[in-house]
Specification:
Elements lengths: L7 H28 L3 E2 L11 E2 L3 H15 L7 H4 L3 H22 L3 H17 L6 E4 L8 E4 L2 H22 L5 H24 L7 H20 L8 H20 L12 H31 L12 H8 L3 H21 L5 H25 L2 H11 L1
Antiparallel strand pairs: 1-2, 3-4
Helix pairs in contact: 1-2, 1-8, 2-4, 2-8, 2-9, 4-5, 4-9, 5-6, 6-9, 6-10, 7-8, 7-9, 7-10, 7-12, 8-9, 9-10, 10-12, 12-13
């Protein structure tokens, strides 16, 4: 039974500070973006119809950073800093990736420069101890699989790859007002619930306290940014925000998923051992699916896999007949169902999760295709008769 009391009041304070700082700073950043002409141009692939300032990610980064600085001074949460330099590494790496993203938002840097910055940010996190150390494999004797401890080179490679995939995946999903901030907040809530559960069960506030703290700060920053960014957006995150959020998500996933052993859960089955990986997949499912579909589609068409087009998932949602707000809300539903189902596996047997998960998926599918169903002749005629 859990014997460790989670510092929920301190987490709530961190959440509130991240929200407030991000909300206030984003308003100031918007004025700065207008003065330096950091506008998102109207391109063929875009759905917005007027120039909108970007650099909003600077507000998100500062919100997370200020919240973490506050946490370092709180009675219980300071253990996350006293026992490890991982969060310091996240702040420094985040500053690097946010600065490069801000320069890209203003001057449109080339892809090689941005990739180099992403690798550098990942390397900084590794240097400060953010590394995927323990990996579960579905092999070995019995149904429990095998836990493999990676050496430094392997853990560095895995961490860098996870970071690169998440940074670019989050960048790909940033196509509708409020989409990335909302999906990241939902995924962050799932990450917090799971990592806080790991902390509570392990009762080790020196080894498992970094991930929930980072998750709650990131959720607060995303929520603080949403009032500025939901349709119609007054400011965009830009690469400064999407790359930082992807990097922070990667750090949280590695901190909890790559450092705990299945033995933490005692006699739990393979499903419990897989929970960290399932949560990781839940966090990146929507942007990763968008990323993979885009790359495959462009490659099949003989185009550069990273060229722009108007056939991302969010463009397809608009083509189905959803309004801008409806499309974003449907993505929120998908993110909540996937993340919630994955996290639930850490608390109960998979048999108890299947029913609600299937029900949630049916709701999400129904919401996705509802405009097309509504336009079906039978449905349309039925609705017309009811109006008469």
């Amino acid at each position: 039974m859990p014997t460790f009391a989670l510092p929920m009041r301190e987490y709530a304070l961190v959440l509130g500070v991240a929200m407030l700082v991000t909300f206030v700073v984003t308003g100031l950043v918007r004025r700065l973006a207008v003065k330096v002409h950091a506008f998102t141009p109207i391109r063929a692939r875009d759905v917005h119809t007027r120039p909108t300032p970007r650099l909003g990610g600077v507000g998100v980064y500062l919100g997370v950073t200020v919240a973490l600085v506050l946490a370092s001074q709180l009675p219980q949460l300071h253990q996350a800093f006293a026992s490890s330099s991982q969060l310091l590494g996240v702040v420094i790496a985040g500053g690097v990736i946010c600065a490069v993203g801000a320069l890209d938002d203003r001057f449109d840097l080339d892809a090689v420069t941005k990739l180099a910055a992403q690798v550098l940010a990942a390397a900084i996190m590794v240097f400060f101890g953010v590394q995927w150390i323990v990996m579960w494999l579905p092999t070995g004797d019995g149904i429990h699989g095998t836990t493999v401890t990676l050496d430094r080179a392997q853990s560095t490679l895995v961490t860098v790859l996870i970071t690169l995939v998440l940074i670019n995946a989050m960048n790909f999903i940033d196509g509708l007002d409020g989409l990335l901030a909302g999906v990241a907040a939902i995924a962050g809530i799932g990450m917090f619930v799971f990592s806080a559960h790991v902390l509570e069960v392990s009762a080790n506030d020196s080894a498992a306290s970094q991930a929930p703290l980072l998750a709650v700060a990131l959720v607060g920053a995303c929520l603080g940014f949403l009032p500025h960014n939901f349709y119609r957006a007054r400011i965009f995150m830009g690469d400064a925000g999407s790359m930082f959020i992807g990097m922070a998500m990667a750090a949280g996933i590695v901190e909890v998923g790559g450092t705990i052993s299945p033995s933490t859960y005692g006699a739990r089955t393979t499903v419990a051992a897989l929970a960290p990986l399932i949560v990781a997949l839940a966090v990146v499912f929507i942007p990763a699916l968008d990323f993979l579909l885009a790359v495959v589609r462009r490659t099949k068409e003989g185009r550069h896999p990273f060229s722009a087009d108007q056939r991302h998932l969010h463009h397809r949602m608009l083509a189905l007949g959803h309004s801008h707000e409806q499309a974003v809300l449907v993505f929120y539903v998908w993110a909540a169902v996937i993340s919630g189902s994955a996290v639930a596996l850490a608390f109960t047997e998979w048999e108890k999760v299947v029913g609600p998960a299937v029900g949630g998926l049916l709701v999400a599918v129904g919401a996705t295709f509802w405009p097309r169903v509504r336009r079906h002749p039978r449905v349309a005629s039925g609705a017309a008769k009811e109006r008469v």
